[in-house]
Amino acid sequence: MDDGILARLAGALISGEIRVIDLSQPLDDGTAVIQLPPEFGKSKPFLLEEISKYDSRGPAWYWNNISCGEHTGTHFDAPIHWVTGKDYPENATDTIPVQKFLAPACVVDVSQEASASSDFLLTREHIERWEKKHGRIEAGSWVLMRTDWSKRKSAEAFLNIKVDGSHVPGPHPELVPFLAKERQVIGWGSEGVGTDAGQAFLFDPPFPCHTIMHGNNRFGLASLMNLDQLPAKGALLITPPLKIVNGSGSPCRVLALVSH
Questions:
Q1: What is the rounded distance in angstroms from the CA atom of residue 60 to the CA atom of residue 73?
Q2: Backbone angle region of 226, left / alpha / beta, with phi > 0 → left and psi within -120 to 50 → alpha
Q3: What is this structure's pTM?
Q4: Distance between CA 223 and CA 221 in Å, rounded?
């Protein structure tokens, strides 16, 4: 390999000058899955079914069958996931141009606000204050909302479902079009089970992150973790979903490259 940009990147990874941060939840039968009202279809929980483990079923090998919904654990949302994004070309997990799976990240830390209120909503005003400190959000960047919500260990606390529905922080409905249209972001990421706030079914429009982001051919990342290890700016995200034909999304091992 010559002394080019890729050689320098490889050297920085080997030396530890660039760290790799795992932003993904582990997948097991306890992974929280989004809960919908009973009249709607249900996503299966994650299931690991042993095929063989060095035994009569296969003496030299260990492997499993897995099953789950596409939007289980840390996962990628493609535009085809929502009705507003269904007509774009190259809008599914197998057709999205692969260069879009590497992009810079802007991390907005509202962990204190989210700790004070499970219904906290990130507004355009919050973003504009963040930009005064860290600079304008560049087109093609991810915007990640750090709430430390992923530190809730039980599925019950993570989903936080009450009699009136889920209560999880998320973006204000007026913020989403600002990010999608005026900042031209590549997508939105959150630590909750989905990209929208828990009470987003009551918003106008309902589920604005899904409706507007996917309606503008943008992406989503949900159930992220370890956002507290990322800088406000400067991380590079690696976000490829499984290459499911016509897939609306998939579990994803989201990685961040961070320079020391």
A1: 31
A2: left
A3: 0.95
A4: 7
Q: Give the three-state DSSP class for 154.
A: coil
Q: What angle is formed at CA 242 by the lines to CA 237 and CA 247, rounded to 5 degrees?
A: 115
Would you call 71 exposed, middle or buried from its count of C-beta atoms within 10 A (0-12, 13-18, 19+)? buried
Which of 71, 75, 81, 126 is flagged as catalytic? 81
Residue with tokens 């009569």: 56
Per residue, what are the HEC states of 51-63?
Answer: EEEEECCEEEEEE
Whether 81 is a known active-site residue: answer: yes
Nearest alpha-carbon partner for 179 in 123, 241, 257: 123
Weakly modelled stretches of the chain, pLDDT under 70: 1-2
**In this structure, what are the phi and psi dihedrals at residue 111, rounded to the nearest 5 degrees?**
-65, -35
Q: Report the distance separating Cα 220 and Cα 175, nearest Å.
A: 15
Q: SS3 of 113, please?
A: helix
Contact 222, 74 (CB under 8 A): yes
Identity of the amino acid at 127: I
- Integer Rg of the chain from CA: 19
Query: What integer pLDDT is reported at residue 260 of this predicted model?
Result: 81
In the three-class reduction of DSSP (H, G, I as helix; E, B as strand; rest coil), residue 181 is classed as helix
**What angle (nearest 5°) sits at the alpha carbon of residue 43, between those of residues 256 and 190?**
30
Residues 81, 188: contact at Cβ < 8 Å? Answer: no
Residues whose CB falls within 8 Å of the CB of residue 206, separated by 6 or more in sequence, listed in order: 200
C-alpha separations of 133 from 108, 130, 137 in Å: 11, 5, 11
